[in-house]
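Retro notes
What went well: the complex prediction finally ran end to end.
Inputs used:
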Amino acid sequence: MKNICAVFLKQVSDTLKNKTILIQFLMFPVLVIVMENAVKIDDMPEHFFAKLFAVMFVGMAPLTCMSAIISEEKEKNTLRVLMMSNVKPAEYLFGIGAYVFVMCAFGTVVFAAVGGYTGADLALFIAVMSAGIILSELTGAVIGVFSRNQMTATSITVPVMMIFSFLPMLSMFNDTVKAAARVTYSQQLSELINGIGTTAISAESVIIISINFVLAVVLFTVAYRRKGLE
Amino acid sequence: MSCTIKTERITKAFGARNVLDGIDLDIRSGEIFGLLGPSGAGKTTLIKILTGQLSQDGGTAYINGTDTRKLSGAEHRKFGITMDNFGLYERLSCAENLKIFARIYGLPNNSISDALAKVGLSDAAKTPAGKLSKGMTGRLKLARAFMTDPDILFLDEPTNGLDPVSADEIHKIILSEKARGKTVFLTTHTMTEAEKLCDNIALLSDGKIVEYGTPAEICRRYDHQRMLKIHLYDGQDMMLPHNRDAAAALAALIEDGKAETIHTTEPDLETVFMELTGKELSA
Ligand SMILES: Nc1ncnc2c1ncn2[C@@H]1O[C@H](COP(=O)(O)OP(=O)(O)OP(=O)(O)O)[C@@H](O)[C@H]1O
Ligand SMILES: [Mg+2]
């Protein structure tokens, strides 16, 4: 616990200094406030931007941050020092995972407020967002563990992040994309969020998200077994 | 006196290359031990084995009587380690860098300012680690290694790439740790550093220890390298062997009034190393 805290607080003290990560946490929450207030088109669904950006945020921020933090620590040889100080890999991952989760929780609050959720809808929105953040963090951790340095991590992160965060938006315009995107957790998150207050939670969404989760855990285990945290 | 670090026939190969080939060392508590060798000799590899970052192919290493392969994480805390491949958080300040480890080790807050003061970085407490000079970076790494007040310090080339003034600052810090009773295992490829700091040194070449002893002892063993250096009035220097054979030549130089000064040159570790291995240390 002491080690998890140390890793968590280390990351906290880096927050304002690490522009790449800070922008991930701020971009969509700021964008949603601006867009919801600035753009008003008659036929647009209610809180269109809140729902759209919430999904993009979940697909992008946790994933990018996790892979960036882990790969930077590997490249700069700071992770090695933590391990030599008897910090266990699981403690490290929980420490930065908790940090990214908390930072994304702030974003979630913004989306919830802008989206005007209350009561049961709010609870469901938070639950869906939390599941998404955790899944994205796992995916980012897989990339971070797998990459030797920041360059490799970025080159894998960008396409993966594009798939998860942009497919839900593209599938609004194209049915083929929508059919393909169905298997991704972010598309299912998007459908869940858009259904809040109107449609019941579909079993399909829950199953697909669960499968995504299991896959991410398996991938993480494989990456970790093969590469460790060195 | 008790042996703090002991190795018995340590071997390690990377692929077909025997990097360490039967290393035997006995390092007493409270001494500064220097492992010398040219680049690629296997110095870092031995430190990694001793500190549990790498396992040997054969042989055993003991620290305070415990097989290093059986050291627990808590026992690792008793070492202070600095290596080239140990990084700092560049965006974080010196104090923030140390704070992380104070938390991990459960140390009070004043341990941070104490550690910084010890290495003369109090004024740089708020400076980001990435903005420090090379010498300051080296000192911050030492401060981090000293935080738990370890009894044994492993310092892998602590002055590598530093200017003489910065190196001297680090030498002073190392000597003051020795004065506090710490055991220091350091590697270097500069002879002057070894002669200045170390109680005992070992010369490592092609995976073997080729000489082992105090710097003075080793130099004495190579006394036949002692030379006479004659500075002539015409500005030239002449070297003659320090024995009978030189007598006639020397007498002639003096008789002709050519010799301005005559000195004996003691063999230094650098020349000893050259003779032993045919290699230059700092090449
Ligand atoms: N993980 C590794 N895999 C393969 N070869 C390695 C590995 N680590 C070290 N070596 C090789 O082992 C040899 C000894 O390396 P080591 O780093 O111990 O030397 P060194 O004495 O510390 O040199 P330097 O003075 O340059 O730091 C080198 O030839 C190096 O290439
Ligand atoms: Mg080395």
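What we learned: Residues 2-227 of chain A form one domain.
What to try next: split runs per interface for comparison.
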